[in-house]
Specification:
247 residues, alpha+beta, six-stranded mixed sheet, 3 helices, 30% strand
Length: 247
């Protein structure tokens, strides 16, 4: 064997050994870590029609179920009144719709730099010098009572658990869809009975979270209707280490 042939043969053996070693140490052979599952906050499959939209909210499960006529068209987690601010069961109707509304009963106090110093303040609270009281936003407001209880967009900190001061918080990505589907006069039943929605506890993985976006942003309800649109649990926004509270 010539010198050049020997070198070529040795180089081939080294390459083969490198491939075998790399393959044996590949992550493919080790445990595969899947992303942490995240919970869906809502589902929507309204195809339109002439039926009347109705809403049923279960205080027990913290789930709202939406129907058009006799057809189930959607559901979402809600956050109703926490202890001491209980949301009352009963039969209601939407009496007012306002896209951009702020609470006249709750908010927070922040300093001149926008740092929150009191995340659960009222308009009557004394505001220290140099600080400002900020009323809590209640986007896509749908009033249910004359004493200030309604549905609106807000944080759902722990799906399935109450968290508000009495209002019904709707997931912020879903509330514009619901707002467009209802009218003044839409019936809303709030009950202590369990919900009928069996799939609300389904958990999904981020890799399954691809959705189509309509012009202007948001989620195309048609993709959700086809089972392609899934929403992940939203994160809580903190300001100076304090979560901004929504009523």
């Amino acid at each position: 064997m010539t010198y050049r042939a020997s070198i070529t043969h040795l180089t081939g053996l080294l390459c083969l050994a490198s491939v075998i070693f790399t393959t044996s140490c590949s992550p493919i052979d080790g445990p595969v870590t899947r992303p942490r599952p995240e919970r869906k906050l809502y589902g929507w499959n309204d195809l339109g029609g002439s039926g009347k939209v109705t809403i049923r909210i279960s205080l027990t499960d913290q789930i709202a179920e939406i129907k058009r006529g006799s057809e189930n068209i959607g559901w979402c987690y809600v956050a109703t009144g926490k202890e001491g601010h209980d949301t009352r069961p009963g039969n209601y109707k939407i009496t007012e719709k306002i896209v951009d509304k702020y609470s006249n009963a709750y908010g927070w106090i922040e300093d001149e730099f926008g740092n929150v110093t009191d995340g659960d303040a009222k308009p009557s609270d004394k505001v220290p010098p140099g600080m400002t009281y900020v009323p809590a936003p209640m986007p896509y407001w749908m009033r249910l009572t004359s004493y200030g209880i309604g549905m609106h967009g807000g944080i759902i900190p722990q799906p399935g658990e109450p968290a508000s001061h009495g209002c019904i918080r709707i997931p912020k990505k879903f509330v514009p869809i619901l707002f467009e589907a209802v009218n003044v006069g839409t019936p809303v039943v709030i009950t202590n009975e369990p919900s009928n929605h069996g799939g609300s506890m389904e958990e999904i993985y981020p890799s399954q979270n691809a959705v189509n976006r309509p012009p202007g942003g948001g989620v195309d309800p048609r993709e959700i209707a086809r089972g392609q649109g899934t929403m992940r649990a939203e994160s809580v926004t903190y300001r100076n280490g304090v979560p901004v509270n929504y009523r």
